[in-house]
């Protein structure tokens, strides 16, 4: 799969998955992967340069923190994926026992829950109303921004009417902002420095004790929108829906016209009729001639140039003082 400026390899068979498992850790670095895919782009003015200095260290520290806690978050991520896939299979179950699910909707749902787990904590990620309103809020923001982008510049001030038509009473955004404000007050009241930070919001409240609640809520709102609108990149192993409800069966062989054409055979290697004559070894260049220790400056100049003037000749003549009248 080719995307602008990058190439993604999607795992599509058991052989590919086994090949990834056998690869050394030096070739599969989670730090390098996260640095490649979580670059600070399109963050509404929150760009940090990707270098180790005063401005770039927050990016390095954030990546190190997430990669260090990845082993702790992995069981929670797997549980979220299992819950979402089971729920999607139950909703799309057919009469013959197989299930049909909307792949993009399912991926978007559990990827957004993973993002909420990192940002707001496990309680919010397991709240169905918060997750549902959060996804609707993201969809409304996307529709309004696309409408404003496609309209001419002189009509943009009048897009508030279209925004009201899309958003309505803006109940989804209000619910998200009220939940963020409630979590900020809870963290400020019950924060213990000895406790481990449970979310990005918790760490932001602890790191900025003098910041106002509205400022932290504004930053979290922008981060939530910009991070959730990014396309989730997930490694998938496609399996027929019938194998999810029935015992696994052997995959049918694809038609012959779908197989890629075999490459033409290489011609056999033929020896040369006569061996090549031995090539003479190149002679090494003579060493550079050493200059004498004492050498005049004009000896290094070309023949058609004049020797440099002495330093005394470049000085201005002394000004003679006249006796006062």
From TrEMBL:
* Molecular function per GO: heme binding; iron ion binding; monooxygenase activity; oxidoreductase activity, acting on paired donors, with incorporation or reduction of molecular oxygen
Q: Which UniProt keywords are listed?
A: Heme, Iron, Membrane, Metal-binding, Monooxygenase, Oxidoreductase, Transmembrane, Transmembrane helix
Name recorded for this polypeptide = Cytochrome P450
Where located? Membrane
Q: Where is the composition biased (Pro residues)?
A: 274-289
Sequence similarity: Belongs to the cytochrome P450 family.
Predominant localisation class: membrane
Disordered: where is this region? 241-325
Kindly list the cofactors needed.
Answer: heme
């Amino acid at each position: 799969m080719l995307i602008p400026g990058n190439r993604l390899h999607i795992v599509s068979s058991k052989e590919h998955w086994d090949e990834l498992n056998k690869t050394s850790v030096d070739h599969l670095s989670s730090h390098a992967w996260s640095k490649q895919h979580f670059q600070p782009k399109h963050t509404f003015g929150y760009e940090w340069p990707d270098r180790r200095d005063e401005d770039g260290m927050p990016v390095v520290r954030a990546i190190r923190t997430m990669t260090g806690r990845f082993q702790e978050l992995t069981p929670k991520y797997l549980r979220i994926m299992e819950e979402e896939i089971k729920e999607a299979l139950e909703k799309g179950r057919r009469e013959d026992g197989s299930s049909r699910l909307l792949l993009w909707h399912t991926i978007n749902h559990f990827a957004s829950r993973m993002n909420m787990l990192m940002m707001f904590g496990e309680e919010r990620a397991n709240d169905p109303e918060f997750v549902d309103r959060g996804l609707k809020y993201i969809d409304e923001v996307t529709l309004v921004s696309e409408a404003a982008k496609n309209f001419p510049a002189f009509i943009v001030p009048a897009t508030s009417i279209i925004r009201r038509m899309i958003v309505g009473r803006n109940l989804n955004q209000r619910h998200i902002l009220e939940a963020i404000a409630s979590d900020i007050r809870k963290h400020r009241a019950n924060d213990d420095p000895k406790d481990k930070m449970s979310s990005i919001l918790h760490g932001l409240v602890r790191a900025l004790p003098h910041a106002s609640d509205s400022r932290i809520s504004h930053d979290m709102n922008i981060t939530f929108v910009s991070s959730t609108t990014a396309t989730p990149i997930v490694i998938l192993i496609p399996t027929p829906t019938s194998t999810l409800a029935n015992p696994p069966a052997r995959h049918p062989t694809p038609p012959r016209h779908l197989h890629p054409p075999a490459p033409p055979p290489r011609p056999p290697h033929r020896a040369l009729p006569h061996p090549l004559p031995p090539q003479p070894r190149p002679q090494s260049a003579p060493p550079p001639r050493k200059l004498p220790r004492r050498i005049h400056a004009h000896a290094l100049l070309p023949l058609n140039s004049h020797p440099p003037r002495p330093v005394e000749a470049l000085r201005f003549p002394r000004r003679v003082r006249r006796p006062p009248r």
